[in-house]
Amino acid sequence: MKELIGTGVALVTPFTSEGAVDVEGLKNVVEFQIENGIDYLVVLGTTGESVTLSEEEKQLVIATVVATNNGRLPLVLGIGGNNTAKVSEEMQRRDLSAFTAILSVSPAYNKPTQEGIYQHFAALARVAPKPIILYNVPGRTASNMEPETVARLAVDFDTIVAIKEAKGDLVQAMQMIHSTPNGFLVISGDDMIALPMTLAGGAGVISVIGEGFPRDFSDMIRLGLERRVDEAYTLHYKLAPCIDYIFAEGNPAGIKAVLDQLDVCDDFVRLPLVGISKKLRDSIDAFITAY
């Protein structure tokens, strides 16, 4: 899965002031990523506020991204949830012809055991029409995918090809890199440790901050993959303050404020999310002005 090595970005879903999907804003976001060197795009992930989109809106987002991208970059589609049967049905129902892989988050709220997590993804792997990227994000799901579970899935199912590892624990990420088969990709889901994970043998990142600063962030990961460490860390430390800013009051409110300041799209979010505070916005604006 060489298409998934490097920098992917988790696309936001822009909204209008009336709360509708902003199609023109979404086109701008996609073009901004392509023009600035991003390697692949992730549609309908957490950053895309997929849990608050209707089925019709999801179809609109997919169609808009596919048409705008026009085959230029690989695409990954988020299909996940805590109802295994429903996720399985959606994977089989959707037209995935334009997509390279599926990103599927570990079940939230149910708090399954490691065996439950294994059986959930085993059921999906048996029916998935495209390769699966596991997604471990304990801060949102309330359960952690242990390295042993990830390795077991990677060995048992050829259709499970990667994991987006977003615990923010470099030691756990290194255990996954070490224990999974050659060719299995461990992708950072945490922007702050994306570079050290890459240098430890990871495959890059699915990023949030990269959506606002695609050129420098994707260059940083390329330099990391090339083992040009000093140059890579220069870019890391240049971007690090804004990584803290965009997550200070929640994702995607922070990255949408960045994109708004850059005139890429507006920063409206849907309840229960709210926009960022004026104090944080001033910090982000000052960072971008200095940058």
TrEMBL record:
Subcellular location: Cytoplasm
The protein's Enzyme Commission number: 4.3.3.7
Active site, UniProt feature: Y135 (proton donor/acceptor), K164 (schiff-base intermediate with substrate)
Enzyme class, UniProt record, top EC level: lyase
Site (Part of a proton relay during catalysis): T46, Y109
Role summary: Catalyzes the condensation of (S)-aspartate-beta-semialdehyde [(S)-ASA] and pyruvate to 4-hydroxy-tetrahydrodipicolinate (HTPA).
Protein name: 4-hydroxy-tetrahydrodipicolinate synthase
